[in-house]
Design the sequence.
């Protein structure tokens, strides 16, 4: 496979005050991938640093949505931590020519996560 296109969007640790994620799903960032053709491979990488704000176990849900901030969920994970964590996940999709916009969203039902850094990276590979 040959890399056709790559972009990474997010916020680095230390560039903002960590904030608590609540029960309402929030958009953290998004990427727009150009030139996806039938048969291409689309790779979406999540990289999130977070910590728990309370004495309890931290919980964080991360989702990737397609097309719009409230579009269909194409990837979901729930993470837990005792003090702090770095979540790195990869989602690989077959390109269909219609894909373009992807959004990284998060929520924590009981306010049990504070975000310290987050990125969504999108890569398009061609066979």
Sequence:
């Amino acid at each position: 496979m040959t890399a056709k296109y790559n972009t990474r969007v997010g916020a680095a640790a230390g560039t903002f005050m960590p904030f608590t994620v609540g029960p309402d799903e929030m958009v953290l960032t998004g990427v727009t991938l150009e030139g996806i053709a039938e048969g291409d491979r689309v790779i979406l990488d999540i990289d999130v640093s977070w910590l728990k704000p309370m004495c309890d176990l931290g919980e964080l849900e991360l989702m990737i949505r397609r097309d719009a901030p409230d579009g269909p969920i194409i990837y979901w994970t729930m993470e837990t931590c005792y003090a702090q964590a770095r979540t790195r996940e990869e989602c690989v999709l077959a390109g269909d020519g219609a894909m373009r916009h992807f959004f990284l969203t998060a929520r924590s039902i009981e306010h049990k996560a504070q975000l310290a850094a987050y990125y969504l990276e999108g890569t398009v590979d061609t066979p």
